[in-house]
Design brief:
about 325 residues; alpha/beta; Arc Repressor Mutant, subunit A; 4-stranded mixed sheet; globular; WH-like_DNA-bd_sf; DNA-binding transcription factor activity; HTH arsR-type domain-containing protein
Amino acid sequence: MDVLIRLHVSSEAFQAVRFSDGPLPVVELIGALMRAGAVPRSPGMRRYAPEAIRPLFDLFTPKGELPDFVISRRTEISAALEELAMVPAARMRSELFTAFQGRPPAAWLHGLAAGERSARAILLRGIEAGYRAMVEPSWAEISSAAHTDLAHRGRILLREGLARAIASLPSTVGHRGQTVDVDNAADRGVPVDHGLVFAPSCLLPGTLVITAGPGEPVTVVYPAATTVVKARLGRQTSDSLSALLGSRRAAVLRAAAVPRGTTELAAQAGISLSSASEHASALRNAGLIMTTRAGRKVLHTATELADSLMAACELPLVAAR
């Protein structure tokens, strides 16, 4: 039965509460493994998994928990792997022995706890192979679904404030004053001294708290809106939004699901800066993007009309499932 992780957010840290820039690759992999039978462990699923991925099943406790060092908040798989390669062996040993009460279930985990390079290589190969096989083929859809969810939260944040944005999250996340409660399989208080980040997941079946490293924010991962995930991951027809607006203009509109500068729009959509500026202007004239100034920076954000349009373009995909 899930209990609460209680996040005590300091007054200063509460000013830095925000939503993520997108989904987290390692978290999506964890969700994919859980759906594949990692919790409870499924010998059949492990037998049919590619050999490099099989050791990852050993990282889950019977309660479905993982040592904290495995869970990366990085938004790029390459950055997550680099971070994992640098985790001190002493931290791995401590967290493995805590998670498994001193008895890790596999020999390679004992090697990992002992700081063996070969064991760390097994971990890194497993994470990369798991991502390539189980997440990357659907990454475009996962990213699109997550950004649509973030756009919804972002509009609530802009119109109604932070409290309402947090209240819009799934019922597994609660908010009272400067305390955020998250349903989780662990019961502990976690101080939040350097900000709090909310990140959507398309594959994780529940909520997850990623504790903070030195100077880093605590991250709360929540399930993205179910209808959005079904629509994006169930894509079986042509891209209706691109057919309506053109592929580049549609890419710019989707990129504006969260507030972005023109340079960021261009990078996200994979087009030139001048092209991004031209498309943003056309979308603004059509009432699909609003442009605001934050200091010296100009930010473009999809409007509520754009949200309705993107949702309408996905409706046939839900019906097709």
